[in-house]
Amino acid sequence: MKIGIDIDDTITDTKDIMIEYIENYTDFKVEEMHDLPASFWETFGERIYQRVNFKPGVKESFAFLRSIGCEIIIITAREYRTNYDIVKLTEDMFKRNEINYDKIIYHSIPKGPDAQKENIDLFIDDLEYNLESVGSYGIDCIKIVNDYNNDNKYRQFNNWNDLTKYIELWGREKNGW
Question: For residue 73, what are the CA distances in angstroms to 28, 47, 76, 94, 174?
Fold first, then answer.
């Protein structure tokens, strides 16, 4: 089974660090955090991404899912055309935390076509419009909920331990594990 997973605010705490930069260094509002201009990312992106942490349970979840034969494809909107090396920052973050995956797809906007191309069976993200894009290809979707995004039509989880248990059960039912 192939699982597509977003990075920012799905497996990391990016929003918490972004808010600090928005509140202390810009005139933007926190509500605008998903529509920040390129200039914000050019100025603060490297510092933000260097400080990002994985959410609790992600490392164990990835290890377990890969041990039962799941392929993990990271599908992120992270932009590779910046004044810093987002690919290196991202891959170093995974290496430093000893979190293994099978592939990363960068600058995936919208995410649906990439998920379809990779034959994703299950997709996990924190943003409804990404889930809508992927779901329009008939791919099952799960939403990671945070304090800012907890109303939606998708099955939702707020922690990786419960999500991993669900994926295991889902895989057994859907794929006969």
Answer: 32, 25, 10, 13, 19
